[in-house]
Amino acid sequence: MKVLVLNSGSSSQKCRLYQVAPGAPLDPPPALWRAEIEWAATDSSASLRIENASGVRYNERIEAKTRAAAVERMLRGLWEGAAPAVRAPSEIQAVGHRIVHGGAEFRAPALIDERVLQAIARHAEIAPLHNRSEIEGVRLVEKFIGAVPQVAVFDTAFHRTLPRPATVYPGPYAWLDEGIERYGFHGINHRYCAERAERMLGKNSADLRVVTCHLGNGCSLAAVHGGHSVDTTMGFTPLEGLMMGTRSGSVDPGILIHLARKHGYTPDDLDRILNRESGLLGLSGVSSDLREVLAAARQGHSRAQLAFDVFLHRLRAGIGWMLASLGGLDALVFTAGIGENSSDVRAGACEPFAFLGLRLDPVKNADPAGDADIAMADSSIRVLVIRAQEDWAIARECRRLLESSAG
Ligand code: ADP
Q1: Candidate list 27, 43, 113, 155, residue with the active-site label
Q2: CATH homologous superfamily for 2-154?
Q3: Residues 165-181 pLDDT 10s
Q4: Mean pLDDT of all residues in the chain?
Q5: CA pseudo-torsion sign 28, 395, 70, 74
Q6: How far is CA 386 from CA 29, 336, 337, in A?
Q7: pLDDT digits over 285-315, tens only?
Q8: Domain spans of the chain?
Q9: Apex CA 392: angle with CA 389 and CA 396, to 5°?
Q10: Closest by alpha carbon to 73, among 13, 138, 151?
Q11: In this predicted model, what pLDDT tens digit does every residue of 46-84 receive, in sequence order?
Q12: 298: phi > 0 → left, psi -120 to 50 → alpha, else beta; which?
């Protein structure tokens, strides 16, 4: 089955086409086609990159007055232009969409119809940047690809198994009636990594206790027991928890009250400060990109060093939190841009857990080849590096849902 995956970010749009075999195997095959749009921060132009399975690729700057115009251009590249992957849109048999917020309703992927779209629109109040562009993506597929089954795969769904004490905020009880509770995010990749860890360790999932560390521009941890998420660091929005590229993560809410009183900050001001001007960028003043922060720290930039130290402190504290929710640990998994590539972060995150018998192999940590176990043979806890495969995970979920609804 040819499955197209649309993955919308706030300033990017990724798209992949996969051939998904029956049973939707866990290991990703190479994509048949990949495309990515990145919007320029300053004007209405965007860069579009497209590559097909024969290795034909091109990169063009496009005028994109609206997001929809750019996405249309990208979709047409599937069957037109220099690097097509199909002869006609009708060859695409299903489309999977990454939906950031599925609220309390969705515990699993859903076949998209008007009711599902309305529910996704309701959650746009909490995740406006994402959910609205995802709905637009569904409409564009209807328009340009036609009547193909479309599936919503939710970043929140994996965490719907969290026990009540882990989801309820200790605010007034009325918050619960308003849907103000902890949802958690990055669930598509946390789930994929937990399944992959189980496969790599060759263990039965029923008792396996794993902490998955998704460390990219956004960062979150999940505590996974027997294949189910039992705790996570992000909450009502993707702002809670760890320090991130430009997001603060958790801060004392009293700070917000203080700032609003002292400087008259509006909700939009606080949104900008906490989501875009904090984290690695805010503290270091150098960049939101950890590579640049680390390079500056090595040259003696004290704010860059502070940003890295706080990042690690928060990460270790988060792992400790997940450990308490699991009551033990078989494997610690590192994934996404920072988790896969930064040996400094992995070593720093593992260090305080040496007292539990966790022993990282410094040679393997320095250069893990693909998905790898980087703990010493006698370590009491395995440490795994697993490449994030969000788009493949969406394509699999899509086929699984369509297979089960057909069966
Ligand atoms: P997103 O969450 O947008 O998908 P990624 O998963 O690509 O982001 O992660 C981006 C982060 O990964 C950036 O902070 C970047 O600095 C970091 N990163 C990528 N490669 C390295 C590296 N070799 N060392 C340290 N950090 C890296």
Answers
A1: 155
A2: ATPase, nucleotide binding domain (3.30.420.40)
A3: 999 999 999 999 999 99
A4: 94
A5: positive
A6: 15, 8, 11
A7: 999 999 999 999 999 999 999 999 999 999 9
A8: 2-154, 201-385
A9: 130
A10: 13
A11: 899 999 999 999 999 988 788 888 999 999 999 998 999
A12: alpha
Taking CA atoms only, the protein residue closest to ligand 1 atom 4 is 216
Q: Write the residue with the smallest CA distance to atom 7 of ligand 1.
A: 337
161 burial class (0-12, 13-18, 19+ CB within 10 angstroms)?
Answer: middle
Residue 206 has pLDDT above 80, yes or no: yes
**Atom of ligand 1 minimally distant from the CA of 294:** 25
Kindly provide the b/e burial profile for residues 163-183, where b requires at least 16 CB atoms within 10 angstroms of the residue's own CB.
eeebbeeeeeeeeeeeebbbb
Structure token digits, residue 207: 């008792």
One-letter amino acid for residue 326 of the chain = L
Residue 311 sits at the vertex; the CA angle it makes with 179 and 359, to the nearest 5 degrees, is 110
C-alpha to C-alpha distance for 24 and 393, rounded to whole angstroms? 9
Distance (Å) from CA 144 to ligand 1 centroid:
33
Q: Is 367 a catalytic residue?
A: no
Ligand 1 centre and the CA of 216: distance in Å?
A: 5
Token duo for residue 225: 């027991």
Which one of 3.10.129.10, 3.40.190.150, 3.30.420.40, 3.30.830.10 gives the CATH number of domain 201-385?
Answer: 3.30.420.40
2-154 and 201-385 have identical folds: yes
Report the nearest atom of ligand 1 relative to the CA of 345.
25
Interval between CA 57 and ligand 1 midpoint (Å): 23
* pLDDT class of 10 with cuts at 50, 70, 90: low
Mutation test residue for ligand 1: of 14, 342, 343, the one with most atoms within 8 Å of CB: 342
Q: Which atom of ligand 1 is nearest to the CA of 293?
A: 16
239 token code pair: 């702002």
Query: CB burial class (10 A; 0-12, 13-18, 19+) of residue 111?
Result: middle
Is the CB of residue 401 below 6 angstroms from any atom belonging to ligand 1? no
